[in-house]
From TrEMBL:
Pfam family, one: DUF2169
Species assigned in the record: Massilia frigida
Designated name of the protein: DUF2169 domain-containing protein
InterPro entries associated with the record: DUF2169
Domain annotation DUF2169: ranges: 22-105, 146-432
Amino acid sequence: MDFINHTPFPAQDFGGVDQHDQEFHVVALRQTLTWGESAVLTYAHKQLPLCEEDHHAGPPENSYVLQESDYCQYKPRCDVIVNATAYAPQGKPTRRFRVKLVVRRPNELSPVPPRPEGINQFVAPSVSQLSAWETEMRARTILPGEQLLSKQLDVCGERYFVRRFWPIRAVAAILQYATLGLMRLPGWRLTTPLPAVAVPVNKQYAFGGRSRVNTEDKAAGRIAQRHRLPADQIAAQPDGEGRAVAHVACAANPAGRGYVRQWLVDALRLSTVRAPQVSRPDYPVGLGDFTQGLRGKLDSKRASSLVADFGVRPKSHPERIALSGTVDESFANSAAWLPLDFDFAMWNAAEPDQQIDYLQGDEVIELTNLCAPGASGARSDEGGNTTLALALPENECHVLVRLVSGEMFLSPMQIDTLIVEPDQQLLHLVWRVVLAKSPSAPIRAVEARMYSFKERDRIRAEVDTLKQQLGDVWDARATLTGGVDHV
């Protein structure tokens, strides 16, 4: 199959295969957009290439993913990802403030009222009727577009879990012993947040983390045997990070903060632990979550609900791993490409509440307190919050598929990834289309094209006209070629 790219954007075709070993073609196209003072999205002069592999914020072993490879085979939904910094309203140091992400359909005018008619086709409507109709026309209002995604997060300045002084801890231990564990006094406290102007909204500032001590660390000798990894597991570790003698991570977010185990506190003699600075309003991180984590009793679902950001959900997340299907000895010994229960939703990288239906290409993205006051295109609302509204440019990508038989048809591509980087003034769209490999209708060539909505609507109107003109001939051709609309 030949692939021809008629657009100015990086695009590539590659192969895919499903759970039943059925092969298919994939075409992915990436667009890079930017904006200025008017907040109007335009295509950037430098178009970034397709992302060939997962892009980490730092060393892969101890950082988080900014974006995943564009060479995935299929995404059932659209990922909305925002890699941003939270800025306090009006740029004033604030202990706590809120940020918001909204994706919505464009606003529309209310419906046009029907024009009045006379008592019959020979009599014009009266002057008073026309005057009332004109008044109704002038009174048409703007109807807000449907919200496809709305997500808020709470952001605060630096704060810590601090160990209480030893006399208080001693009293707590005595009280717990005297009451047979019925009464407990916390040995830690959560400090009040310090004022902050800017806080990165990413996995490193959200709840999560890991407890790790390597064999060469001085603290390794203070790790009790019951917390150590088996000798064979230590020996089998790669040398990239050193070899861990003890290691436990929050599967939902290994890069975060606030999740540590008691053996690490004891080994490192910690008296303070960084607390998360980004949280969900409905799942605030509390002292109880920290102490449960110390004891290794924090429920995995609770831990997952505490992770808060607008970024990529790691592939190590238990819920993403479950979507990969059953990888057992039977599968390992088979020639199958994928487990039968593999779910392509595994390729959706955004958090579940940031996965929406495919975008159409004219949606509006609204950010609140996710760009600096005074940034290009930003505005200040009546509450002093910094807002940025970006409307997609009303273009649509297609592929023209030419079959070996000479037939050809248009297949629309879908936007399955939207990434916004406000600090860099960049917005990325990834379009994708999947085409079946059929021995009875082999594909000779695929051509990537882009049309404006007006051009698209004109082409559709011409095709509809052609259908009407051809009539039964069109229906017969469609039946012979599997029901696709040919042009």
